[in-house]
Design goal:
Elements: H1 11-24, E1 42-45, E2 60-63, H2 65-71, H3 76-82, H4 84-93, H5 99-116
Helix pairs in contact: 3-4, 3-5, 4-5
Bound molecules: zinc ion (ZN).
Length: about 120
C-alpha cells in the first residue's frame, strides 16, 4: 500500500511552490504546451507520490487539468511512451525538473517514435 507522507505544508507555502513551479515551466502545461493562468494550472508530481515520488521542486511541474487527469498515477515513462507529444513538450518546457526525469522522458519518446516508425 502506498504511504503518503503528509508534511504540514501550509497554504501559503503551497501557493508559493505552485507559483515558482508555474514560472519555471514558462507558465504552460509542460505536457501539452498550452499557456495557462495560475488559477487553471495544477501541480503535477512527475513521479507520482503514490509510486514513491517526492515533493521536491525537481519532481513538480505545472500541468493543465486535462493532462493531469490523463496522466493520473502513471509513471512518467509509461505516460510518455503512450503520449510521446507529452514527453516532447516535457523536455522542452519542464526546465527545472530532475535530470534523470528528463533522461527518462527522452528515452521514452525515442522508444515511442521507434515503435511507430
Ligand atoms: Zn496540458
Amino acid at each position: 500500500m502506498a504511504t503518503h507522507r503528509r508534511r504540514g505544508v501550509d497554504r501559503f507555502h503551497k501557493r508559493h511552490i505552485k507559483r515558482e513551479t508555474f514560472r519555471d515551466c514558462g507558465r504552460r502545461c509542460v505536457y501539452c504546451g498550452s499557456a495557462l493562468g495560475l488559477e487553471a494550472a495544477t501541480l503535477d508530481h512527475v513521479f507520482p507520490l503514490a509510486k514513491g515520488g517526492d515533493n521536491a521542486p525537481g519532481n513538480l511541474v505545472a500541468a493543465c487539468q486535462g493532462c493531469n487527469q490523463l496522466k493520473g498515477s502513471m509513471l512518467p515513462t509509461e505516460f510518455f511512451l503512450r503520449y510521446p507529444w507529452a514527453g516532447w513538450n516535457f523536455m522542452r518546457y519542464a526546465r527545472a525538473v530532475h535530470r534523470q526525469l528528463k533522461r527518462g522522458a527522452r528515452r521514452a519518446v525515442s522508444l515511442a517514435y521507434a515503435k511507430a516508425a
